[in-house]
Amino acid sequence: MGYSNSADLAERLGLSNTDPFTGRVNAQVTADGLTDEQAKERSEFVEHLNDNGLNQGLVVIAPHGGKIEEYTDLQAEHLGKLFPSEQVSEWIGKCFKKSRGAFDRWHITSTDICEESFQKLKTIFGRKFDYSVAFHGWGSDSICIGGGRRSIDIKQQIKTAIENAVLGSDIKVAVGIDNGDDDEMCPEGFNGNDSDNIVNRLGKRGVQIEQSMKAREFYGIKIATAFADVMRPLI
Predict the structure, then answer these.
(1) How far apart are CA 129 and CA 109, in angstroms?
(2) Considering only CA atoms, which of 159, 187, 183, 153 is closest in space to residue 172?
(3) Interval 97-115: pLDDT, tens
(4) What is the bridge-based pairing of β-strands 143-147 and 88-95?
(5) Pairing of strands 88-95, 45-50
(6) Closest CA to 90 of 149, 38, 135, 42
(7) Which CATH number is 28-231 given?
(8) C-alpha distances in angstroms, 170 versus 166, 191, 195, 214, 217?
(9) Please, are residues 211 and 205 in contact by the beta-carbon 8 Å criterion?
């Protein structure tokens, strides 16, 4: 794949220039075999997978864990503990950079995530789970519940459950519109309805939850629990 934005490339990789050079490309993103602590020390990306090899009910992902979209990995880990292994699988990417700047170095949009670059993600990719959920963070002060068009029937239930989870705060919760119109609280590009979005490619009914920093830091576990309450009778 070509890379057209040389300035962005230089910034991401800390290069002094983007003059032509020779090298060998390794498509694998993750540093295999590292612990989280080793990844922190080396400014690396690691992936974690909990999967029994058979589950087709729910898969939970946090592709931007670690220091990219903080607390999303903790939400995914918590959700995974609320169901037996035959009902839930979890895939988490944790990204670190010692001198900060993890977002600039490691962030990739959900529509650009390719299973070929992530060894553990690839092992579950072809299974097509009944439900999938991705925890994300964004700069807005609200929560957007988006996802694929086939998940519209459960989005409102999730919205109500999350509103109860953040009750007493000033955090607003919205559901992404699926008719092509833009929505101020769930704008195009963040509402997760693209068929190429990894959450929609993993599950038949994909849900993407975009959350403010306040929501993740102070209500993250409650939000994950609220989602589990909606899922429990479905899987």
Answers:
(1) 21
(2) 159
(3) 766 676 666 678 888 888 9
(4) unpaired
(5) antiparallel
(6) 135
(7) 3.40.630.100
(8) 8, 21, 32, 10, 14
(9) no
